[in-house]
Specification:
heterodimer, A: 316 residues, alpha/beta, D-Maltodextrin-Binding Protein, domain 2, 2 domains, 5-stranded mixed β-sheet, 11 helices, 18% strand, B: 495 residues, mainly alpha, two-stranded antiparallel ribbon, 2 strands, 74% helix
Chain lengths: 316, 495
Amino acid sequence: MTRIVVALLLALALVSGVVAQEKYPSRPIDVICTWGTGGGADAMARQISTLAQPVLGVALPVSNVPGASGNTGMAQLLAAKPDGYTVATFIQDTLMTLPMGLARYKVDDFEWVTRTQVADSFLFVKSDGPFKTVQELFKHAQANPGKLRVAGTGFGTVDDVSVRVLEKKGYKMTMVPYPKPGERYASTLGGHSEALYEQAGDVLQYLKAGQLKPLVIFAEKRHPAFADVPTSKELGIDLTLPQFRGIVAKKGTPPERVKALGDAIKKSMDTPQWKKFADDWYMSPDSYMGPETFGKWVAAEVDTLDRLVKEFGLRK
Amino acid sequence: MGELLGNLGVGFLNALGPLNFLMIVAGLAIGIVAGALPGITMLNAIVLVLPFTYLMGIVPALLLMIGVYCGGVFGGSITGILFNIPGDPMNVPTTWEGYRLNRQGKTQYALGLAIMSSAFGGLVSALFLAFFAPPFAKFALGFSTVEFFSVVVFGLASVSVLGQHSMAAALVSLFTGMFLGTIGTEAQYGVERFVFDVPFLKTGVDFVTVLIGLFAIGEVLDQIAGTAEPAAHVNTRAVPRLPLLDLWPLRWPLARGTAVGIAVGGLAGAGATVSSFVSYGLEKQISKEPERFGTGHAGGLVASESSVNGSTGGAMIHLLTLGIPGSAATAVMMGAFLIHGIQPGPLLFTKQPEQVYTIVAGMVLANVVMIALGFVAALSFATLMKVPAAILNTFIVVFCFIGAFALRNDMADVWLTMLFGVAGFFMRRWDLPIPPLVMGIILGPMAEGYFLTSMVANGNDLTVFATRPVSAIVLALAVALLVWPVAKRMRRRTT
């Protein structure tokens, strides 16, 4: 018996000693990207991974765990230890699943490390397709309810909610979920869906090549880079759900590690590489929010989304 | 055409530059070894080299990854042929025939065929990429999840007839695999299935634990128990010969395998695993001697191995012309592009021709160099056959556990691997075939995802699978594949 007690005490001393002395970070930090390769969340995760590596002094390998509107990756984060060695991307699409009743966690289950990006969403169509203006698209939707297909990220996401809000306004379309960005773009380029709900930076290469064109921006004001694209507000649709992206850790991560992560990401975002990346992807200049403010903002955002969901009766 | 050849010429000159060429060779070596080791997959290797590419330019970075990709999809066939332990899932059909050939004392022949058909498939697909990428990409966009679903179903059908005596046993194994694939968070609606509130089950059972558990650990247990069949005459001097002349009688399986590889890799974007099974199934259906499949049939080996490497060029077309990664490997390459601030897509070929054609030329070269490196690797791994089983098996088990742990840094995956190892032991005893189970867990969730997306996109109309011509043809072939052996048996019984 005494031997067991001594062994336990020794083990405890060893563990606590390690915890007290361990320098953070002393090994690679896993970054879970909750979406497939090639999209906005993936690009953001990989930029942060590259830029934060010299700051933190360890590698930040990115692994893609797409599925269930980002919640498959969330499950993986929540299954890991809250030791600051596993972080994940978190975007508006996944947040929307909370008020929609599809998420299995609460806002309080995470340490909200940093909000890295905010950008407006658009509806895009094929440039050589039948629709030249948003009015034509909506008219077609009105005449053929549910026939037009909009490629989006997943059920319960902002894409889904936007399409359903449009339905309440009389333009019924079908949202087809593609958690992998590549499949989403291929489906619109190949004519397997008529429209695409996305942010401009994500599909920049197709915009430049003249394969896709924006019809409407879901925002209060027109975007300077797309001055001739009408806003949803102009069309009488009061729906502005800008996409945000950020980095989260599991609740219970030691506060000094959250701070270390937040500081490293802040430093990464102050580099010229990040500034160029943010400009290329049409990001809002005041995207940044640190660990102190991000969590509070998200909690308020969920309340807003909750009201929207109730107002339009979206939750079944 | 002249401009294209000029671009390609410049590409070859660049790819032969010292740094670029070194990257191709290094990538191939890493890929072949990683592919060959059980527990370490080609994908692991690509993910591992990615951070090293941060400091390079995009061209050497891509060439390194292409080397790993081309070498990695081939490497698993070496250990498959020598030890009956396929390093990667796409090498399972190769193992099926190659290990039999090895046991018959034709080790050199089997290894040589695998090297040559891999290199041939890869070379042709790389040339295809060089000359037809943009028009092929346009053509490929015409295919939707409906067609992808049908191709995956064909893959599933070909698994169930994969060179076994009992179709019932194969189906039991296949459906067990598909069931295991349903565990975890469902991809469309986020429904949790068979999770029982166990956190690590929420992200599902990783197919790698199943693959290495059933094949590698199961094989080791089988050897310890002394039930593994003794070889006819083990050939420890297994110097592979380069069977250039041997390939001629196999030219049609080789051509078909390569074509299927390019098509499935490029059209469905389903990657090497699906194309290897589709090609094997198709070959068995076309072959005049389907009953000899599974007993060491060279045609089956050549067809599956050439399609595995054939799919690499197809998948690269998707990546370079559309910016859409079709396989997990090209998805990581996409990440490399993005890190270097390049969005691969429709403009890449016109805006950065020098870079693109260097990458393409590098891929052609990689497949030529692979013949030499594959030869060396096969030779080195063959010497392992002289190592006492106790020592060799210890290393196999260690690699398997490292690979399993590395999946999510979670001991749970190691326990799962052990569990599947025991299951693999008993499946060998009870004559339950293992490949269908592994394919079930890989292809099952793919089929489900494509099916559900097709349903949402087509108003839950099941007839789309029959009204879209390509899908209808592929599904008809799948049905024929399943019904053919049954019909033949019934005819034999009645006459």
